[in-house]
Amino acid sequence: MNRTPLLLAFVLLLSACSNKFSKIFKSKDYEYKSKMAEQYYANKDYSHATQLFEDVFPYVKGTARYEDMYYKYAYSYYYDKDYLNAENLFKNFVENFPTSNKSEECDYMRAYCYFKQSPKTDLDQTNTNKTMQLMQVFINTHPNSARVKDASEIIDKCRAKLEEKDFKAAQLYYNLGYYKAAAIAFANVSDNFPDSKKADEYKYQTIRSYYKYAQMSYEEKQKERYEKVISECRDFTDRFTDSKFSEEVNKYKTHSNNFLNNLKNEQAKKANER
Fold this sequence. Notes:
Blueprint: H1 4-26, H2 30-42, H3 46-60, H4 65-79, H5 83-96, H6 103-116, H7 126-141, H8 148-175, H9 179-192, H10 199-215, H11 219-239, H12 246-273
Helix pairs in contact: 2-3, 3-4, 4-5, 5-6, 6-7, 7-8, 8-9, 9-10, 10-11, 10-12, 11-12
């Protein structure tokens, strides 16, 4: 099948559309340009809509239409997935139109734009933290909003992402054999996310890391480090009475106690030989 005619027709169509927009953009009739900006927005041609909105704003600012046009202007960037600019425009909307019935929505959308920029767990989580901060501000500012439930769910999703990132970092320390760093990192995950469904696992991993650290330590340091293992095991037992890791934790506690008892016996034996 010869596709050349189809390709040519497509190129001609693009050229015609481009020429049409160019004529609209160069027009000095700002009423007409405003109408066309609205039309491009309605047709989901957000790139052309934003250009026209920007061009007519100086002429509609201060009029009754300005608020609605600015609202659509912000959403044009959002729908084009330019979340960085959209966030700033939603913020500006709230600041410029604080009494608008759209102000609450734009306040939420500002935070949501940060959420849309939140990356995978192995990348920097600045936007994730910012999302949580702004969603909490939204909840505090609009406690009766229908969007509070969504805001709370997004905070939970962000918290889960941060939890996963911290866990992966701790696990990496362990896999690399940096057991002290792993123990501290797992302990931080446990402390920072006490209500997590995996809280007992984080505590278990803390114990396992401290145990490996004690094993790898110089003899003169082992006593205090096995005592640390036992202390962590006791804390685990107090906090998690029904954990699937309880049996393993008890083993670490027993092994550590055995080591300390053997060490005590050896020291007593050496003392008697003197």
